[in-house]
């Protein structure tokens, strides 16, 4: 870390700069777009980053923009909710979104050109030769036509309800005969049934892909052959709807019933954005806008021919391994050996798992072992987001069938996973698992598991405390830290948390875990105050925070105060950062970077100087008001010196990273850190190499 700058007199927060969270989020998504634009990124990976960018933006409009629109008539109180004037923020969002869409379209065109150099061609309907046309027609008749439901549209009153997450072709029939009324139709593109991409037969070295939209365009005459027309044109439209759940206060309904009802309401919510093909003729555009009751000041974005780019996350690689990142096999931990008890190892020492560098199968194997161990009495776990084919669920069901007492704290309000979690609830309950539906008024976001085992007539607890979900799918692309421990200091507090879930009318005191909503804000403030005290006493004082988001105004003010007192602060913030670093009289002792690379940085790690005796925490919570005040979260101290060193090495590598690290500043410029002496540090690769060295005694790759 660089030398601290002289302390300044603190100002009131009202005089300090805070970046609006919506604008900061758009800046984060720009960093994702930069990956799609970066020629150093493999080509198919770049295409998939376009898909990630698009998927992110969809969720942003469904949640955050919808929230801004909801509070637009609340007056001054709205500013407190969203941190600014709603109309001004919406205008900024619209302008930034339009600018990013232009960059997006340009990146897509450039990627297509680069793919052609690799002999890979994405063909439009007007570029097919005769043999390709025959193949497409045959494929269409066998696979696509049965899934189509064309709807004729004579006016706004005939317009069907447009589904969220779907794309449609708005059709206009062209007739050259004068004074003939135009005809219109609408077709939903069945990409969820057929798949968005069709690989055409290869010709020599040349390989071909066709997007489903264009296949339907090519066969549009066949679809509407009963009509008399000279030509038919199709233009893509896509609707994004308000995704907030309206949960009523009817005490006669269970939470399960309320969530189920709200999910159905969400599917018919008001549109908050429409993206459409900019070449769409005016009469057709007016028809669509009228049918959807959209005004000019709504979020209407004229784009290119293709939308719903989230499908491009699955863009096929037909050109060879060099077009994707080279896969990094999950590393073995030297502490674990095949056919040996995981619980036995954890009893002897704390273990830190680092995903995706190491396999999530260690967690699954732990649960599988606990499920059949005759001395294990119970398993308790918090569940927030799960894989579609969850091995975690299977392990819990297996434990219940082996007569273990299994309790799952199921969060039904995990956004966009509510429906899946209701399904998992039914499956678990059928197997005899006890379900606790969180805490009234609070989301349970902590990532905890507790195993109770009888040993020599006494009960021993084993705990897993993680920064990420119990989701083996996302564990391959999200970087998270996960502690396995039998340390009574930690396991006793985890046990208290599960007692709280069971009896949430009572509050509990935690000696080691820092929990929200009752304690985390106060404890974190106290830790910052301790660094301020040390700085004023002339001692070395510093704070390092690795978070997904830093938004909460009170915590930002506290960090500004610490900076002005001379505390050196380093921030690694992947997503939203409302704090503005390196402002004189406000934050000149704060530096902030954001890392966006092949893995999604998801772990939350906190380090406090503490007068030379560093304090380490891993946490499920970002520094957002919702996490600190309205969710059940847990920050866990790390006492093991070897694990502290692992975390310190990770942080040092990330702070020195200069290949995928961007500087966070007031202008949201997202400039890359410049390598010193041309020495490039790519933090995710370097941390993998570091962990590989730690596991050299094993000498192999985890084969789970």
Structure description:
- The chain is α/β, with parallel strands linked by helices and 704 residues long.
- It has three domains: 1-86 and 513-704, Endonuclease Chain A (Endonuclease, Chain A, 2-Layer Sandwich), CATH 3.30.870.10; 118-323, Polyphosphate kinase middle domain (polyphosphate kinase like); 342-502, Endonuclease, Chain A, CATH 3.30.870.
- Helix content is 37%, strand content 21%.
- Strands 14, 18, 19, 20, 21, 23, 24, 25, 26 and 27 form a ten-stranded mixed β-sheet that branches. Strands 10, 11, 12, 13, 15, 16, 17 and 22 form an eight-stranded mixed β-sheet that branches. It has a six-stranded mixed β-sheet with strand order 2-4-3-7-8-9, sandwiched between helices.
- Strand 23 (604-608) and strand 24 form a beta hairpin.
- Helix 1 (21-37) packs antiparallel against helix 2 (43-70), helix 2 packs antiparallel against helix 4 (86-117) and helix 12 (361-372) runs parallel beside helix 13.
- It is globular and about 90 Å long.
- The two termini are 39 Å apart.
- Residues 9-14, 245-255, 262-267 and 698-704 have low confidence and may be disordered.
Chain-wise SSE layout:
Elements: H1 21-37, H2 43-70, H3 76-82, H4 86-117, E1 120-123, H5 130-144, E2 151-153, E3 167-174, E4 183-188, H6 191-194, E5 197-203, E6 206-211, H7 212-218, H8 220-223, E7 231-241, H9 255-266, E8 271-277, H10 282-292, E9 300-303, H11 342-348, E10 351-355, H12 361-372, E11 376-383, H13 391-401, E12 405-410, H14 418-430, E13 434-436, E14 443-444, E15 447-455, E16 458-466, E17 478-485, H15 488-502, E18 514-516, H16 520-536, E19 542-547, H17 553-565, E20 568-573, E21 590-595, E22 600-601, E23 604-608, E24 615-619, H18 625-629, E25 631-637, H19 641-656, E26 661-663, E27 671-672, H20 683-694
Parallel strand pairs: 1-6, 8-9, 11-12, 12-13, 14-25, 17-22, 19-20, 20-21
Antiparallel strand pairs: 2-4, 3-4, 3-7, 5-6, 7-8, 10-17, 11-15, 15-16, 16-17, 18-25, 19-23, 21-26, 23-24, 24-25, 26-27
Helix pairs in contact: 1-2, 1-4, 2-4, 12-13, 16-17, 19-20
